[in-house]
Amino acid sequence: MLYHFLTPLDEWFLFFNLFNYLTFRTGGALLTALVVGFVIGPPMIRWLKKKQAQGQPIRDDGPETHLAKAGTPTMGGLMILISLSVSTLLWADLSNIFIWITLLVTLGYGLTGFADDYLKLTKKNTRGLSGKLKLLLQFTIALAAVLLYVLFPVEMTSTGNAQAGAAFDAARTSLALPFFKDLLIDLGPFFILFAMLVIVGSSNAVNLTDGLDGLAIVPVMIAAACFGLISYLAGHAIFSEYLHLHRVPGAGELAIICGALIGGGLGFLWYNAPPAMVFMGDTGSLSLGGALGTMAVITKHELVLAIIGGLFVLETVSVIVQVLSFKLTGKRVFAMAPIHHHFEKKGWSEPTVVIRFWIIAVILALVGLSTLKLR
Q1: CA distance 288 to 291
Q2: Per-residue pLDDT tens for 238-258?
Q3: CA neighbours within 13 Å on the CB side: how many for 352?
């Protein structure tokens, strides 16, 4: 919004020329979301406590230490969604279709998570929406987003030349492989299904990771920082050519959403730090995971997301292995799944698990970013 209102004034006031710079607006989006998060945090937590007499239901079969968290309100993801939305609408170029595609998934998944959290609270148990209904909603939203990405004219997203737009059109349904300069695998119509699986899978992977105070939000912010850089480079004519990235004209604007996500995440972490005053809930985890998956699809870094978000992959794989092992052999591989609960059962304190998982997330993010140069 500010971009459209203030950039025309740069002819009269040199200061307004700053709004032409993506880096300036990304910083503004981060700080705005952070301030909004700090401002709305206390009243929202009070409102959630008032509406949730008993707080988020705690699993009876979970680690015993979690019983002390009874009464803590959930749906704190609303704080992040409000901060992210306000900041993005304020600082982004709203003529960019990639902004609207990402917001569609983020807010759509946020509503799905909100419905899930609401049912858990009203039923006073850990079950919300049925798994089938939740997946149906996720795949429907993902389908709408992917179709917009595949079918929307590149001219509406591009500030580059016709050649760059044509190159993007040719690669739009292709899969880019990390560590290879020019290798693209054209998936054709199967790209739609692949992209949907990336978005839905990312959403549920973050959801599975959200089980300890601060465990999910910090790796999400780390991944957002990485994709803020990736989107900026992929959308930049000179940097994308130098790094041999497949250029996606207009993708740089996604850095605004990444900045807003980091700012909103920091604001939320202030109240989610141990001992948590509020939980993210599915309202936050489903939406943030969906946002990361969507940006990975748009920037053609779907496989790199599996590296940068390797912690989320590890958590998901631990659940799959646990379920398959129990169904096939009647035995469990882990003391409890997802894997962060396994280490709690083994005697690790919650802060130890969280901080060590943060370290793993940082290492994997650095490995993922290395793919930008190692080609």
Answers
A1: 5
A2: 998 888 888 899 999 999 999
A3: 9
Structure tokens at 22: 């993506």
Please report the pLDDT score of residue 120 as a whole number: 81
CA distance 32 to 35: 5
pLDDT at 83 over 80: yes
Query: 């950039």: which residue's tokens?
Result: 7
Position 48, amino acid: L
Name the residue type at position 102: T
* Beta-bridge mates of residue 53: none
Q: Which helix (H) or strand (E) is 175 found in, with range?
A: strand 174-176
Residue 124 three-state SS:
coil
Burial call 174-190: b when 16+ CB within 10 Å, e when fewer: bbbbbeeeeeeeeeeee
The answer to whether 240 and 234 are in contact (CB under 8 A) is yes
* CA–CA dist 92, 26 (Å, integer): 8
What phi and psi values does residue 12 have, to the nearest 5 degrees?
A: -105, -35
What whole-number distance in Å separates Cα of residue 214 and Cα of residue 361? 13
CA distance 255 to 202: 19
